[in-house]
Amino acid sequence: MFKNILDAIAELFASIFGRKSKPAPKPTVKPTPAPIENIPEDGSEIKPDTIVLIANELDHVDVKPNAPDVEFEHDIFDQPETPVTPETPVVEPPVVEPPVVVEPPHTETPKPKGRFMWCLDNGHGKKTPGKRSPIFDDGATQLFEYEFNRDIVRRIKEQLDKKGVKYFITVPEVDIDDFLEGRVNRANALQSDLPKIFVSIHSNAAPAATANSWAADSISGIETWFFHGSQRGQKLASIFQQHLVDNTGFKNRHLKSKPEGQFYVIRKTKMTAILTENGFYNNKKEAAELNKDAVRQKIADAHVAAILEVEENGL
Fold first, then answer.
1. 132: helix, coil or strand?
2. Dihedral sign from CA coordinates of 113, 119, 122, 125
3. Sheet containing 272-280: order of strands
């Protein structure tokens, strides 16, 4: 009863002096999601302001054979043998020997030939956007990077088959996109009795006014990328770079690495990995060369020569 009287008095005062308006609730502001990490795939996606370290392939790299490396798996040729503890001989009573059964000679399981398992990565696929040259003056000719990469790997494969070198092609498919994670997962999951090495093969692109414009003639040549801080990676890159430059006569752009945001296939593979950039497909003069069968064979031959050198001498 008393509460009802108080409510009535409060209502009377409110009608005379007006009601106090309640402050409007503040709108809820959702936090802006963090941007997805933008990981470049190859040299063509390096921004002009990116820090890139350049090394000369003739620089001395002090790497001992089978030296440990953070991203290198293991070397089966450097495993210590388990010592055998001699047992106390046990004197057995003489027994009657059973008849001798002549069995066919035992054939041991052959050990894998070669020194390494080479994971050959033919970068990009048919559905990867861009990654192609402008159309040449004939109105029809164009260089597609996915086709160039696969042709080089095919030529390498043919020679490694003859040499008995072990290899694994990460992406034999063509009608795909970048398939970055898939490439890396396949290489990492590959079961091999030999230590693995990852070589990703590409053609480069320089900044141009538009996607359909040719880049400056001055930007050309070959460069090889390695995992930043990896001595094994730098040594491997130097071997490939030297053979590529010597065999093609292309401009030497030397070895390169990125302290941060390294290429996905180099950073995510659990083995020594490099990425070769074999000329610029949007340099008009160089792209015309890259379309020639003889030049492609020289590039493939250089990769094979580098592989055989590492097979012979190790890393």
1. strand
2. positive
3. 53-55, 252-257, 222-226, 272-280, 196-204, 117-122, 167-169
Question: Could you list the pLDDT tens digit for every one of the 315 residues in the chain?
Answer: 555 555 655 565 555 555 544 455 554 443 443 333 455 555 555 555 455 677 676 564 443 333 333 333 322 222 233 333 444 554 555 555 555 555 555 555 555 578 999 999 998 888 988 999 999 999 999 999 999 999 999 999 999 999 999 999 999 999 999 899 999 999 999 999 999 999 999 999 999 999 899 999 999 999 999 999 999 999 999 999 999 999 999 999 999 999 988 999 999 999 999 999 999 999 999 999 999 999 999 999 999 999 999 999 999
Question: What is the dihedral angle through the alpha carbons of 40, 41, 42, 43, rounded to the nearest 10 degrees?
Answer: -20
The helix or strand, by DSSP H or E, that contains position 53, with its residue range, turns out to be strand 53-55
What is the assigned CATH class of domain 111-313?
alpha beta
Angstrom distance (rounded) from CA 63 to CA 241: 17
Phi, psi of 157 (to 5 degrees): -55, -45
Mapping DSSP to helix (H, G, I), strand (E, B) and coil, where does residue 202 land? Answer: strand
Report residue 269 as tokens.
């593979």
What's the token pair of residue 19? 């009601």
Which of these, 201, 172, 178, 195, lies nearest to 270 by C-alpha position?
Answer: 195
What pTM did the predictor assign?
0.70
Q: Which two tokens stand for residue 125?
A: 């696929």
Q: Are 120 and 153 in contact (CB under 8 A)?
A: yes
Report the SS3 class of residue 308: helix
CA–CA gap between residue 257 and residue 228 (Å, rounded): 5
CB atoms within 10 A of CB 189: 8
184 close to 269: Cβ distance less than 8 angstroms: yes
Q: Virtual CA dihedral for 37, 259, 43, 256, nearest 10 degrees? A: -170
User: Which amino acid, one-letter code, is at 97?
Assistant: E
Domain chopping of the chain, boundaries? 111-313
